[in-house]
Amino acid sequence: MNDATQAAPLLDVSGVTLQYKTREHLITATYRVDFQVHPSDRFILLGPSGCGKSTLLKAVGGYLQPVEGEIRLKGKPIDRPGPDRMMVFQEFDQLLPWKTVRENVMFPLVASGKLNGAAARDKAMHYIEKVNLAKFADSFPHMLSGGMKQRVAIARGMAMEPDILLMDEPFAALDALTRRKMQDELMQLWDETRFTVLFVTHSIPEAIAIGNRILLLSPHPGQVKAELNSLARGDADPLRAQELERRINAMLFADRVEEEPVHE
Amino acid sequence: MNDIARTPPLRPEVHREPESSTASVVEKPLSAWERVYNIGFVRKLALLAVLAVAWELYARAVDNSLIFPTFGATMQALYDGFAHGGLLARAWTSIRVLLVGYAAGLALAAVLTVLAITTRIGTDLLETLTAMFNPLPAIALLPLALIWFGLGESSLVFVLVHSVLWAVALNTHSGFLSVSMTLRMVGRNYGLGGLGYVTRILIPAAFPSILTGLKIGWAFAWRTLIAAELVFGVSSGSGGLGWFIYENKNLLEIQNVFAGLFTVILIGLLVENVIFRTVETRTIRKWGMQH
């Protein structure tokens, strides 16, 4: 594995503290989190619920400003949502129900003024074919299964060719078999286009299957616990995967033991 | 103790090949009668025919055209009204006023709702105003409207605006509020903001509620208009359908009164079952937002 950390990172998150308000409380979601994502990274944010990983992703998305620290994309601070950071959400209702599959993939291209007309159409179809949904290009989202909807959302994100793709547990609501298949497909897409992705998950096997670099967060508030290298792409050795899973498990489990009595 | 140590019996595994269909029916078309009966339109048409026959029989038994004209006489009056009695012109007068009032109501509703989604005080304003005016029947404002705007079209438009505005604004606003957080974030992710965000994300996403508001607004407006016209014609000699009904009652042309009522029903049915139904099938049903 070549560790090319000397080049300038694509995404630089430094000392980021995030807070949000509920009706009664001010909650600190993450505390002074640092990490750097480089081009073509498959960077995973992994941690138990309450570690602020989704909030962190939303901050990179520009939906939320850090109270401390800074998030920079290509050197520029992030101050609002924008199509240079396409999001893929967990929810199946992220597709616009009044648009067909093709129109859904085309819409951000046109709305952001990146492409229009035939060019947008061709680009959209190219990525719809990549996720094997060409037959359903003229279907409306309500006619698709959950896995197909997520594939459309991925095609939509990739068609924009954003600087970074932000995925917020995109496969969490799928059944186990579909989820495995989607993970494999995502990796094939990465082999073809080498996109950069920041991927949130709470599943250790998913983190190992998808990521090349895994950021482990501890909960309440979210803090960096470790930053690990995952298996190299193409390394399908089940023993090494098991060993990594065991290491991560141990780190998360150690946390749980300390934490439990506090909650009682 | 014995119970806890109990284990299920060990059985051999079973493997089977699915046999080629031995079930008696896999797929078989329904009989012609069943298929016709399954069409809602046909069932309703049959009901209407039964009602018409019952009307005709009852009217013949009463045998008093001043109180209850027969179905046949009503249809004759309806035909005469459309062919030479100017019923079509009367209907058009009503519809024209209605369209003006409906459009003005929608425009005001749009302004109020945009205020309500952009500012907190706008939300409070909309909520307070709808709470106050929604329960107030529009027709109750007619006396006041007559003093303010005189005996004419503007009074009618005023009460129509009142009947449309609150229903549409209330439904549109609650529709906007119920747009899912995910869709909002998707819209902002595309870099949409301001008017683009409202027209390209919020309005289509809230369209089921907006359409409900439009339908309720239309129904209120149509009822209000006919009731208001019963009080006075738009201008002497060319009043709308309500005035037509009122005039013919005074002339004791009861079959014409029935014909006028029939026209009110027909137009109502046409708008609700043809226009709104078409919009519904082409939008929210096609999009799977309503089944």
Strands of chain A, count: 10
Identify the CATH homologous superfamily of the largest domain in chain B.
MetI-like
- For the record, the CATH class of the domain at 8-84 and 166-175 and 197-264 in chain A is Alpha Beta
CATH superfamily of the domain at 8-84 and 166-175 and 197-264 in chain A: P-loop containing nucleotide triphosphate hydrolases
How many angstroms separate the termini of chain B? 56 Å
Shape of chain B: flat
SS field, number of helical segments of chain B: 13
- Structural class of chain A comes to alpha/beta
Distance between the termini of chain A: 44 Å
Specify the biggest β-sheet of chain A.
Answer: 6 strands, mixed
Average residue-wise pLDDT of chain A = 84
Describe the model.
The complex is a heterodimer of chains A (264) and B (291). With 264 residues, chain A is an alpha/beta fold. Chain A contains seven helices and ten strands. Chain A has helices spanning 53-61, 101-111, 117-130, 146-159, 176-193, 204-210, 238-263, and strands at 11-21, 26-37, 42-46, 68-73, 76-77, 85-88, 164-168, 197-201, 213-218, 223-229. In chain A, helix 2 packs across helix 3 (117-130), helix 2 (101-111) runs parallel beside helix 4 and helix 3 (117-130) crosses helix 4 (146-159). Chain B has two domains: 30-63; 77-285, Orthogonal Bundle (MetI-like fold), CATH 1.10.3720. With 291 residues, chain B is an all-alpha fold. The two termini of chain B are 56 Å apart. Chain B has helices at 2-5, 32-37, 40-62, 71-83, 87-118, 120-133, 142-149, 153-177, 181-189, 194-205, 207-231, 241-250, 254-285. In chain B, helix 5 packs across helix 8 (153-177) and helix 8 packs antiparallel against helix 11 (207-231). Classes of the chains: A alpha/beta (264), B mainly alpha (291). Chain A binds chain B through residues 61, 63, 80-83, 85-87, 89, 91, 93-94, 96-98, 107-108, 111-112, 140-143, and chain B through 180, 182-183, 185-186, 188-192, 196, 200-201, 204-205, 207, 283, 286-289.
